[in-house]
UniProtKB/TrEMBL annotation:
Organism of provenance: Paenibacillus psychroresistens
InterPro entries: GpA_ATPase (IPR046453), GpA_endonuclease (IPR046454), P-loop_NTPase (IPR027417), Phage_lambda_GpA-like (IPR008866), TFA_Chaperone (IPR051220)
Domain Phage terminase large subunit GpA ATPase positions: 42-291
One annotated GO molecular function: endonuclease activity
The protein's name in its UniProt record: Phage terminase large subunit family protein
Domain Terminase large subunit GpA endonuclease, first and last residues per copy: 300-590
Residues annotated as transmembrane: none
Cited HAMAP family: TERL_LAMBDA
Lineage: Bacteria, Bacillati, Bacillota, Bacilli, Bacillales
Length: 621
């Protein structure tokens, strides 16, 4: 009975308070006055003191600025950003009640936040305990992921859970670790966009986006910070008083590799060059430090802060982490350095991919004295199937897998009509000659069966099986799983056509490796120069397509793997280079001996694949 009476009195007081306009107060002022840190969630229990981390004052007080709608924190770890979020939640629970949502990367993290961080704050701070109650389910319908109070509520949600983002109006959204969010909440779309849409009905809406960054170019927090005031926390030089941000480039240290210990560390002034210790730079930071904007923005303030400014981590400790990561880099493991750049410097990691300059390849073009240059022993063909055309490349192969591009040809037409297929058939049967009049025909062809004309490709290839025209199906298993270029065959389709499975990742790796060979090295690639008499199709568009992807390193469960990333719009030339490479491996001739021109006998079925499987060999150049 007493519990019911207390609950009724508390509800009455909270209702009266919600009807009265709140006195003007900032988030930091509220926290300094009412926030009590719990020993359960904090290393330093007791009353909150913003001066302990003075760089928090500006960003979180911006939440109470009526002119600011979005606050972006691109921060390193160990800067107290979670505690700052809790202060803002406490402020809008007690002083300025509002419907809120805290969005974590996963629903499990949202549950952990509620249990391990939010509940201890509500319980330990008397002012909040008075408003919210004990937090038990019988208090106003409170649950683990939803807390109610007079004038508002807070919901904890997971970016990976569409159900937890169920539509309810939200005035204030706290998005924590946005770079760890999935690309889409189930099939619903971008989680940040989804929660932002819930704020539209509020004129005084607020959105707080917080994260350490990840990969340059794909980091959410990087994109949000770029569209903001781009502020940096600056402190005065102890010698010349010039304000400046802490920068790793200005850190000078000495490290004992034997004892694995930092012996000295200092930060130089970017203006006068004088070195000062961490203690000297941070002395009086709570009074002298200030946020300085690099851009103007009407309604978005952005704050970048690295760990050098942290009052919870020391410079020797930061140097120690760097040296540990550096040792692993020398062994070929960049993962720890990547983490250090993201979580200590709060900078994006720029991945170095295997990239070839298209202009270098284009400048390598040479004049051929005939359709087929000297040195070519075998011709192969590759066909890419598009909705309105075929793109075909003829390649010649010689000793040590040295290759010559012969022609890049496009055949336009409606693939639903027979004429364009007839044109393709005639082109693949063309006779090519070298300067001595020696005749060459295409020995083996690979044709893409993807797209909207799969069955048509199967039938086309089945009818020309004796000419070694094979349908191919590219596969990319991902996550570092290896699949050889010629991975096997299948005939389980409508026409029982032989379909060759290709490991395209392995194929691209082989193509790119050979493109980087020098003229005196095995596997060198030749390209023909366009002349007045003949345009072979090797123009700027072709070389853009040939270099349209680059190899990047990814990690899964701490294990590095590589993935090909498309960086340009069209990549058909690269695909055709892979198909031609597969074609020569399917044929598997001995290119290191002189071979007569190969004449295809139309009456004999091709047995190349059978021979290759029996031999158990394939080229590995």
């Amino acid at each position: 009975m007493n519990e019911d009476r207390k609950r009724t009195e508390r509800l009455f007081r909270n209702t009266l308070r919600s009807l009265a306009p709140p006195a003007k107060m900032t988030v930091s002022e509220w926290a300094d006055r009412y926030r009590i840190l719990s020993s359960v969630s904090s290393a330093e229990a007791g009353p909150w003191n913003t001066n302990r981390a003075p760089y928090q004052r500006g960003p979180f007080d911006a939440i109470t600025d009526p002119n600011i709608e979005t606050i972006v924190l691109k921060w390193a770890s160990q800067l107290g950003k979670t505690e700052g979020l809790l202060n803002a939640i406490g402020f809008h629970t007690d002083h300025e009640p509002a419907p809120m949502m805290l969005l974590q990367p996963t629903l499990e993290l949202a549950q952990a936040f509620s249990k391990d961080r939010l509940a201890p704050m509500y319980k330990k701070s008397p002012k909040l305990r008075e408003v919210v109650g004990s937090g038990k389910s019988r208090d106003g319908g409170n649950t683990l992921l939803h807390k109610t109070f007079a004038g508002g509520h807070i919901t904890m949600a997971g970016a990976n859970s569409p159900a937890s983002l169920a539509s309810r109006p939200i005035r204030i959204v706290f998005c924590d670790e946005v770079d760890r969010y999935p690309a889409s909440a189930g099939k619903e779309g971008d989680p940040v966009a989804l929660v932002t849409a819930r704020m539209e009905t509020f004129w005084n809406r607020k959105r707080v986006l917080v994260s350490t960054p990840t990969i340059k170019g794909s980091s959410r927090i990087e994109n949000f910070y770029e569209d903001s005031t781009q502020e940096e926390w600056c402190v005065p030089c102890p010698s010349c008083d010039e304000l400046q941000p802490f920068s790793w480039k200005q850190i000078k240290f000495e490290y004992d590799d034997i004892k694995m210990k930092t012996t000295s560390v200092a930060h130089s002034c970017r203006y006068c060059g004088v070195l000062h210790s961490e203690q000297e730079w941070k002395a009086g930071m709570e009074y002298k430090g200030k946020w300085i904007a690099r851009k103007q923005h009407a309604d978005t303030r952005g704050f970048h802060l690295n760990q050098l400014a942290s009052t919870f981590s020391s410079w020797p400790r930061i140097v120690q982490k760097f040296k540990t990561a550096e040792k692993l880099v020398k062994k070929g493991d960049i993962e720890l350095m990547k983490v250090w750049v993201n979580t200590v410097l709060a900078e994006e990691w720029e991945e170095k991919g295997e990239k070839i300059d298209e202009s270098v390849l284009m400048n390598r073009r040479e004049k051929y004295h005939a359709d087929v240059p000297e040195g070519v022993k075998i011709l192969t063909a590759a066909v890419d199937t598009q909705d309105n055309r075929f793109e075909v490349e003829i390649m010649g192969w010689g000793a040590n897998h040295e290759s010559w591009r012969i022609e890049y040809h496009k055949i336009y037409g409606d693939l639903k009509q027979p004429q364009v297929w007839k044109d393709l058939d005639e082109y693949l049967q063309r006779v090519w000659k070298d300067e001595h009049g020696r005749e060459f025909r295409v020995a083996v062809s690979c044709m893409d069966s993807g797209g909207h004309f799969t069955n048509e490709v199967y039938k086309f290839c089945k009818d020309r099986f004796t000419r070694r025209l094979f349908a191919i199906k590219g596969e990319s298993p991902g996550d570092g799983k290896y699949l050889p270029l010629v991975a096997g065959t299948s005939t389980s389709n409508r026409y029982n056509a032989t379909v060759v499975r290709l490991g395209v990742d392995e194929g691209k790796a082989k193509v790119m490796a050979l493109l980087q060979q020098k003229a005196d090295q095995p596997g060198y690639c030749h390209f023909p120069l366009t002349t007045r008499e003949k345009d072979r199709g090797y123009n700027e568009e072709y070389f853009d397509g040939l270099t349209a992807e680059e190899l990047r390193t990814r990690y899964k469960m701490g294990i590095p793997y590589t993935v090909w990333v498309k960086i340009k719009a069209r990549n058909e030339p690269l695909d055709l280079a892979v198909y031609n490479r597969a074609a020569i491996e399917i044929l598997n001739p001995n290119l290191d001996v002189e071979l007569p021109p190969l004449n295809i006998d139309e009456d004999k079925p091709a047995t190349v694949l059978t021979r290759q499987r029996r031999r158990g060999t394939s080229s590995s150049v």
